[in-house]
Amino acid sequence: MRTRAALVNFGWEASNAGRYVRYRAALSRPEAAQRRLLASYLRDNAGTGFGRRHDFARLRSYADFRAAVPLSTYDDIAPYVDAIRAGRPNMLTREAVRRLVPSGGSTRAQKLIPYTRTLHDEFNAGIGPWIGDLFARRPGLMAGRAYWSVSPAAQPHVTAGRSAVPVGFDDDSAYVGGTWQRLIAAAFAVPSAVRHAPSIETFRYVTLLCLLRARDLRLVSVWHPSFLTLLLNALPASFERLLKDVADGTSTPPERLPSELTDVMRARPMPSRSAELGRSGFANTRAIWPRLGLISCWADAHAALHVEGLRRRFPGVPVQPKGLIATEAFVSLPFAGLHPLAVRSHFFELLDDRGDAHLAHELSPGAEYRVVVTTGGGLYRYMLQDRVRVDGMVGRTPSVRFVGKEDHVSDRFGEKLSEGFVGDVLRRLFDRHRLRPPFAMLAPETRGGETGYALFIEGSELPPALSAELDEALAENPHYRYCRDLAQLAPARVVRVRCDGYAAYVAECRRRGQRLGDVKASPLSVHDGWGKLFDNAAAPTRV
User: Which residue has the higher pLDDT, 180 or 117?
Assistant: First the structure.
């Protein structure tokens, strides 16, 4: 298995060599790369409904494009998406729409993003250089298998209604895509078929079984770091049964497996591996996966809190922060130690705080911007609502890190608390007191007829002055201070969470319709009722 995985990984790296070389060259000439992309969008889609409405045929420059096409949100493209669902071609792109993909990160109840062959190629234009750079810097990762995050299908999802176009990805591995999607399955420690597990408990069981069989595991790639933490939390209760399945080559999860999963879960008996795992115990991840060389996950903004817990779980294993990847667009990628813009994937505009648009080659180090994309999927001057900060340069291309969502604002009385601001407040408070809570989230809370904000936080010992310090820090926002002065808002308070806070949060997000792989921890929730939910949540066993 190790040799087969190495051969497949080597072939995958070779297949990405061209993308790697072209991206590396574009880093020194981002303006030219971006100009070519914009020209191709205007040329290829001039005859579409959107192109005719905005007269793409006469546009010759970025200045023309900016003057003719206004900034847009999903509400602006929703009528075109509805037409695509009804089977009408040539609405946003000349190319046929292959799928409509739900965007789980949105606060909107239904948000379906058109995926075309060109958009798929654009994602691979970002993934290819990342994989090429990763294997070039860490060639040992090619010697064994990898775990690429798989989201279970047995969960609530966005209801698309009747649609002439398929809705949703088959599984998360579709991001690697292309000809290699099936071939590199030989290098996957966990087959994508585990998504067919009938429940989250069974999904975690079969995923853990596959991972325990994979002594040669070299790379773990998940989205949010707590996805992996929650998976490990399920290990102690099932460890003895898992060891027997490893020894016997069987699979005995809590529920009967569907036919799509039964065959792929069969394996040769591994008694020696089972005995080795029994000696290591379920908590010693370094002994369980001695060759693990890298964990790739989100590590910016509020996800940074969960990365610390992951590092404690996997001592000595490097964690590589992912770039900024949204359902709509591939914004940045890990490359050369930073996260440069994916300038060969989409056309980017970055808005400063005055609303002025800047192109990729015009950004200032240390400045913050809002990301606007134009893509081969038919999004034009589309505001992602992601805020980024420029943290360096690779060649002449800026490297950016995610700061927070611009559209995630809690505003009960005009206080206008944004995700980015709240995240910064919490980071400063936690650094001051050397706190690294596994879960922390600010949310509005109504109690005794008064509304205020509560910081729900896990931790055995919390500083007694933390509530006052939190309220004072939030008052740096003049809108919040004004609401406090008017007594519209009660003082902020700290509420200790005694269950597994993130597990309860994930369960609630899934109940509301999000895919497990799409759930993103945030420093701020705009919803109330969390206190009652955390009080009623059972505390699962931890490793």
Answer: 117
Helix (H) or strand (E) holding 389: strand 382-394
**What distances in angstroms separate CA 9 from CA 71, 139, 325, 337, one per listed residue?**
41, 10, 23, 21
- Residue 441 scores a pLDDT above 60: yes
Q: Give me the residues paired with residue 521 across strands.
A: none
CB 255 within 8 Å of CB 202:
yes
Selected residue with higher pLDDT from 15 and 212: 212
pLDDT reading at 376 higher than 50:
yes
Give the bridge partners for 102, in sequence order: 112
Q: Provide the 10 A C-beta neighbour count for residue 171.
A: 21
DSSP string spanning 429-471? HHHHHT---S-EEEEEEEETTEEEEEEEE--SS--TTHHHHHH
Q: Which amino acid is at 172?
A: D
| CB-neighbour burial class of residue 177 (10 A; exposed 0-12, middle 13-18, buried 19+) | middle
Query: What are the boundaries of each domain within the chain?
Result: 2-10+120-321, 409-536
Give the DSSP H or E segment for 135: helix 117-137
Average pLDDT over all residues of the chain: 88
Task: Choose from 51-60, 254-263, 303-312, 493-502 the range with maximum mean pLDDT.
Answer: 51-60
Strands of 219-221's sheet, edge to edge? 146-148, 219-221, 294-297, 319-321
Compute the distance between CA of residue 427 and CA of residue 305 in angstroms, rounded to an integer. 9
pTM of structure: 0.79
Question: Which residue would you say has higher pLDDT here, 75 or 159?
Answer: 75
Tokens of 8: 């497949």
Going by their DSSP bridges, the two strands 450-457 and 490-496 should be labelled as parallel
Cα 285-290-291 angle, rounded to 5 deg: 125
Contact between 346 and 337 under an 8 Å Cβ cutoff? The reply is no
